[in-house]
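Researcher: Quick sanity check before group meeting.
Model: Go ahead. Protein one:
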Amino acid sequence: MANFPFQRLQADLAALISRSPAGQRLPSEPDLAKQLGVSRATLREAMRSFETQGLIRRRQGSGTFVVGKVQALDSGLEVLESLDTIAKRMGLEMSVSDLNIEIVPATAELAESLNVAVDSDLTRVRRVIRADSRPVAYLVDTLPENFLHSKDLPSDFNGSVLDFLLNRGDKLASSRANVSAIGATGDVAKPLEIQRGDVLLHFNAQLFDAEGKVVDYSLSFFIPGYFHFHIVRRVGS
């Protein structure tokens, strides 16, 4: 019974969202909280569940907008594939924007992750993945420059480092990823057009070649609701 007021608030929000056309801006947080008779903190907590479903998007400095529901990208994690490959298999349209390729010096963290010397040159590839023109993922790959130079990438590079390496013929063997839920930092929230602190699904991964050498250190940030990742596990004895 203690949760009934919160459930009623979610029901009221669901009704408001369902009768609002895609692209419509919802009332400001102060106005909406007053309209629904709750605090802004309670309202913000209730709205998070609708964000994770992809039903609304909060844009820094612009407000909260209703969005049309998109089909989620669904994939198992047993085999490493690019988002582009998965999307094409599902018949989904995804595009890349904000592509940035640059040479950066290895920080202590990057040097340890890639097993290279501090301050050695690295190639960093950053981009935003979009579905129906909406940002849904932010990807950052960092590789030793002697393994991948920015000049190696073609002018029509589609943003998939993994696909480029496979097509180039590199012998890639495995990937190790740590998966967690995090709050968006400012540098991630801005390209994803969300609020700082919004919950994201985060992959922190290393890609190994056939000799066990780390050739890519990647950070992937996914907006929940647009991605369904799953793992098939066998039962232990």
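Researcher: Fine. The other one?
Model: Protein two, sequence then structure:
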Amino acid sequence: MSATKRIRAIDYPRSGVVEVLDQRLLPLRERTITCRCGEEVAIAIEEMALRGAPLIGVAAAMGIAVEMDQAKWDSAQQRHACFTTICSRMLQTRPTAVNLAWAVERMRQAYGKLQEKSDVEMLAGLQTEARQIMEEDWQMNLAMGEHGASLIKDGDVVLTHCNTGSLATGGHGTALGVIRSAVQGGKKIRVLVDETRPYLQGARLTSWELQQEGIEATLIADSMAAHCMQKGMVNMVIVGADRIAMNGDVANKIGTYNLSILAKEHQIPFYVAAPSSTIDPNCIAGSDIPIEERAEEEITHYHGHRVAPKGIPVYNPAFDVTPAANIAAIITERQILLPPLGSALAKLMQEIRECHSI
């Protein structure tokens, strides 16, 4: 697969329709869900038909646009109330990924500029903004991949966690995008894929993506990572992020913190790849990041079949926080940020603000 092609995890092919590749069924079956209103997109996000921080942001933007496509109103006040309601609904779907709030705010700003326009012009403007958010994410991922590929040497073995490819983004991917770019640049590398319990995003999705384009990969259970590092089988770890605090702490899929500790113990570089939209300027430290807790059935059941005894209490946080001290670098679309990460992030965010004010 070339850098100009991508697996489309979501599409907005025409007015009133958002199409979602149902990731719950992969890799055994490919099915597309057709969403015709914002509520159906919100349910697709909540029920994990689509996932991945950047993709959740893209989906939220498209969900807002498709809701305004089909909603009815009799006045400007009703139109505004409809827009406000669907924005609030999208923000309720997944609390940890900051890309969601970032995308909703983009749509709010777009709507603010369109409020005096006709319904037709307003709808066209929101559709354009939603599609632009997806296109920008793809372009950011390509730039991120180019920066991150410079950290990978020919012959390296890279351990990754969860799914961070085209299925989690607008295309190409974050951590998996870095791996793709290295391979497309001619480097021969191998990927160790963590299964990523309890939802198995690595086993089901990352393995599938890597097979689609012939990148050499080996699937391992999460509990095997320490053994592989001890045996000298891992040269680096690259993961994505759902939110980055201003001190450099990173929230990502549960199990990421474990890997950072193991990597530090074995003196293996631990890298985070994420677009600048994942940086939360209002979040001082990782302790400020809300951690989503998901349904107990994700642990007690597998494909609808119970695998744990009835009545056993379950704790199922979807994310954990990796401290900045365990991170060798954060790879963004603009540059690679090196420690001290707090200072590097502050400088980057200042540059972004200055760029937007021009």
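Researcher: One line on it for the slide.
Model: The longest helix spans residues 119-149.
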